[in-house]
Automatic annotation (TrEMBL):
Record bears the keyword Transmembrane: yes
Record localization: Cell membrane; Membrane
HAMAP family reported for this sequence: TatC (MF_00902)
Gene Ontology MF term list: proton motive force dependent protein transmembrane transporter activity
Transmembrane regions: 52-78, 99-117, 137-164, 176-203, 223-250, 262-278
Protein name in the entry: Sec-independent protein translocase protein TatC
Gene Ontology biological-process annotations: intracellular protein transmembrane transport; protein transport by the Tat complex
Presence of keyword rRNA-binding: no
Provenance organism: Ignicoccus pacificus DSM 13166
Gene this protein is translated from: tatC
Protein family: Belongs to the TatC family.
Reported function: Part of the twin-arginine translocation (Tat) system that transports large folded proteins containing a characteristic twin-arginine motif in their signal peptide across membranes.
Keyword entries, A-Z: Cell membrane, Membrane, Protein transport, Translocation, Transmembrane, Transmembrane helix, Transport
Subunit description: Forms a complex with TatA.
Amino acid sequence: MSLAKDQEKKRKRESRFLKWIKSFFECETETAYSEEISVHIEELLVRLRRSIVAFFIALMVVIFFPINWISCPLFHIYCSSNELSHVVGAEYIRDLLKWLGYIPAMVALLRLITLAINSMGVTAIICNAEGLMNAYIMIIIWGAILLSLPYIAYQLLCYIWPALEEHEKKMLRNSILAVVGLFLLGEIFAFTIVVPFGLKLVVIFGQVAGAEVRWCLSDVINFVLFTAIVTGASFLLPIIVYYLVLIGLLRPEQLKGRNMRIAFLIIMFIAAVITPGGTGVSMIAIGIPMFVLYYLAVRMAEKAVKEREERQRKQLGELGKGGGIKFESTK
């Protein structure tokens, strides 16, 4: 009898745990369409708590997850190309796989970044214990942010979703895809062109001066993260311009002609500020793609505004015809 009761209690505990896990992935709740403000505030707090829990789980993953669980099965695939192996630091992974012990993800990530930096001719050194700790903290925090960001965005989306109209939901879906795509494009551009070019530029200037380039590890990681984040954010400029035109704060006519040339100069100025070295080559390397995206955004916004005005004219025409029929029938 006691065994049956214990099994029943165990099943109840398991069902409660599974229900708690499932609640983290529920989008629409029973209170989503309530008109009481207190209910929406309570739901917002619940989703905020879930986001905080997700961030701390991601934090623990970056700190404690044994990276060799992934690197060992992927070793042969990862190192199949000699050229790719040289770029991403396969020598470290080869040494890593010789270990039989525990290898935290944060250690592997920091080591890979260090090897990638050293391969560009910049010697990353540890200036002091505080700098090493800062490097680890930055790796941990940004790794946790990147891991938890999709879930946090999902919770935010679920909170505002019930309040949106159908056309707004469609617009939001397209916007999410555009934002993610452009930001990833900016990150790829940063890590393949801007950051390597900036580091090599530092090496060239050092060689011209006859000095060996040594850089504190924490400063290098600050430089890489800042450049990557700013470059990714700058690639979101077309989305901002597109929606400013769409909501009526800007008109397509204001962004063309002479103002287009002014926008080109502003974009080049932004590129000069965010690119390392501030040389003309680095400024053009990031400024031209930004301007092309800006131009495409203006054209897309212009097309969207014309389509909206055309729909409004058709609706007004249909209303006018309907009003005419009613007037004739009353007379």
